[in-house]
Amino acid sequence: MAQDLSTQNTRDVAAPDGEPNRRAISFTPVVDIFEEDNLTVIMADIPGVEPDDIDVTLERQALTLRGRVKPGAPEGYRQLSSEYRIGDYIRVFTLSDEIDQANINADFSNGVLRLELPRSPETQPRKISVKAS
């Protein structure tokens, strides 16, 4: 699935250690979106990202996924060649009012970020009983 990544843009990124801004490539991760009863599930492919380098934020209606791929070889190895492009993953979703924002769950396993977005109880269908008079 890594071949399906599309380059989103090149942008200036503030370095966390006080170094000057650097130019970075950002990728749009491919996603699958599923719906089941009162739950929407988003599965985003972000290979090469460690769990500590994932940031999921919710501001108003914007759900933002970010993942940082650190350059270099795994610990204990010396890099001889690299064809994998280093960059940050970023994807933004606009949520409807139907989503229960307080109960969004996120899980990460084997390069796949899974987000569960439940519907608000107020927006779930309900049965209205009819009384005969």
Explain briefly what this protein structure is:
This protein has 133 residues and is mainly beta.
Give the oligomer, counting copies of the same chain as homo and different chains as hetero: single chain
Spatial strand order of the main sheet: 1-2-7-6-5
Q: Determine the strand fraction and express it as a percent band.
A: over 45%
Q: How confident overall, as mean pLDDT? A: 81
Structural class: mainly beta
Number of helices: 0
Coarse shape: elongated
Question: Secondary-structure element sequence?
Answer: EEEEEEEEE
What name does the CATH topology carry?
A: Immunoglobulin-like
CATH class: Mainly Beta
Q: What separation lies between the terminal Cα atoms?
A: 61 Å
Global Rg? 20 Å
Considering DSSP H and I runs of 4 or more, what fraction of the residues is helical? under 10%
Uncertain regions spanning at least 5 consecutive residues: 1-8
What is the domain total for the residues? 1
DSSP, total strands: 9
The CATH architecture designation is Sandwich
Major sheet, described briefly?
A: 5 strands, mixed
Overview of this structure, please?
There is one protein chain. By secondary structure, this protein is mainly beta. The chain has one domain (about 1-70, about 85-125): Immunoglobulin-like. It contains no helices and nine strands. The radius of gyration is 20 Å and the shape is elongated. The protein starts with 5 loop residues before the first strand and ends in a 15-residue tail after the last strand.
